[in-house]
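Escalation from tier 1.

The customer reports that the assembly of two entities below gives different structure tokens on two consecutive runs. Tier 1 could not reproduce it. I'm attaching the input and our single run for tier 2 to review.
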Amino acid sequence: MGTTVELVLSVDDGHATERPFAAAQREFERLEQVMSRFRADSELSRLNAAGELDASADLVDVLSLALDARERTGGRFDPTVHDAVVAAGYDRSFELVPEDAASAPHAARCGGGVEISGRRIRLERGVHLDLGGIGKGFAAERAAELLALEAPALVSAGGDIAVRGAPDEGFWPVAVEDGPTLGLASGGLATSGSDRRRWRRDGREQHHLIDPASGAPAESDLLRVTAVGADAVDAEVLAKVLFLDGRAAAERAGVPAVLVTLDGETILTGGIA
Amino acid sequence: MTSAPVRLYAVVAAVLVFFVAWAVVAAHPWQRRTAAPDPRVAQLQALRLRLSRQSIEVQRVLDRRFAAYAAALQERRRTIALVQALNGRAAQAAAQPVSLPAAAPLPMVSALPAVTATRTS
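Tier 1 run:
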């Protein structure tokens, strides 16, 4: 997934953890083979290439969640941003993306039709999917479920955090960059922002958070949003949407979140204190 | 000269022999042995065999199709349950737009050292 994964179990010293950690790692690798757009033989890549596919239950599940999020957010979260992300220059695993290149970026259409019928997924002509926005949260949730069979667990997949149970303190202390440490007892946490995956094309700054309405990298007065959700998937969607909405709307939304503005100001919202 | 009873017995025996001979001739036992088998019988037997094989094949096809239908039906029911669950979540989100469900406790700022950090990835 091109990101760092952390697996945490709340156990006593000496408790054997190799097996559950190995199981969680295998689950990440398995889901990467389902959802990665950078692997040519992944299920997602085959779907994008063919336009339709008899998919696995996992791909159907994660895509259903993504489409549900698209519905709930009025299209502000959209899994059909693949072509727009590529058009902006993010066409390979991020560590391979050139920091600066002369090719001009351009906007690309988002919001095309996706049909799921049983296990059969059909994409409208010209529509391609990117599940990076929701895949990390989904994988974190799955891994947390596996680890929770052993003990209270926390899984962080590139900063998307899923928890099951809690340690003795009753919550998991999670540091927020440029913000406070939050005590997470349940649910999920995710951070979206334009501060990390950035590059230049034709002299213009680009980043990976696409605004589906414009098909181009979103313009926001926020640098970064950390949102709390019912689970890591929900948190990922909320973080993305609040980033797109901007500071004023994010403060009004009532979602527990930590907002960091372009000016470096940190704002706690949604009841976090 | 023979007596009347003897003549009577002779006539009766002759009549019996006549009818037995008639019955034997009517049966045509020589014809049955030499007559050729009816081709329609062989055709009927071949047709019966063919229909029997087709019936077995049709049953196999039906069994396969029904198994596929049963699997698709189960999958469809699973999808319906998933969509209903998602619609339930969507309805809840619509009733509580863009906010935490009541069950999830609000995280508070903590002074404890963090076990991990969240950041843009």
